[in-house]
Amino acid sequence: MTARPSNEVLFGEGALIEGKGIGHAFEKNSVLSGVDISVSPGEIVTLIGPNGAGKTTLVRVLLGLLRPDSGEVVRRPGLVVGYLPQQLAIDPVLPMTVRRLLRLTNRPGPGEMTEALAETGAAHLIDRAVQDLSGGELQRVLLARALARRPDLLVLDEPIQGIDISGQTELYELIARIRSLRGCGVLMISHDLHIVMASTDRVVCINRYLCCSGHPETVSRHPEYMAMFAPHDARTLAVYTHDHDHSHDLAGHVVPIGNGEHASPGSPDHAHDNSSHEHDNEHPEDEDGHDASSGGGAHPGPGRAPTGGEAF
Predict the structure, then answer these.
(1) What is the DSSP letter of 194?
(2) Which residues, 6+ apart, have CB-to-CB distance to 28 below 8 Å?
(3) What CA–CA distance (Å, rounded) separates 14 from 185?
(4) Residue 18's domain spans which residues?
(5) Given this model, what pLDDT does residue 83 score?
(6) Residue 201: inside a domain, yes or no?
(7) Of the listed ranges 87-96, 97-106, 164-173, 198-207, the one predicted with least confidence
């Protein structure tokens, strides 16, 4: 019988991917210690933590891009992963249309490409230059690129970067619709503590170790969470609600229900808790847990919006 590689273990029942007691260090500097995390089919799990908490490192270990120094990773045999990166650097002088971008690595068929773009509301962008896309448009295209692989697991690294509050809400609703339609698992990385909490089934909070995990409302009241994000942030955290009398199609367009009328944004039936509309000044971490914003003079790339963000 052929022995399994040392980094593979028997698949755990139910989960698409699972990390058990994950530890990792860079040059003897511990970045992760004893972290447990799993994602099951049809489940949205959000990984949160401050900058330098090891979120990106943990995901790289889960995906097999880094070998854990301790613990083990379980992956479903034949697992297909669709990945939406935190940033995408494209040479501004390189002619690159959306169509060419989608064909670079995945080689999807024309039908798969069209279906994925339509699902994310980006079908009209197929012949646009990638450099001309807004932050929100690029995120839709990159999400379509990930979906063209027909993944079992979607991994979304800071998907709301460069998108304003209303656009963030639309993106989270789109992700939830994709999960419901396809039945795939979703793992999101975020340091946004306001809107994301109501857009996920389970939250895993780390700060180089596992602080707490569970239902969003439970995590928001956990002492470790309260201490990590300061009492003020925890008290003012408002779980986002989206109560209204209309639905949305897969492209995010409003579909009236009932008597065919839907509430306006300012009406009681279209309630958005504005107390959640705050931003911190954190910057995304790189894979070593360092602040990726260090170093001056950088111009916003294709995935990064100018000051103020862009609508999704």
Answers:
(1) S
(2) none
(3) 11
(4) 12-80+155-230
(5) 93
(6) yes
(7) 87-96
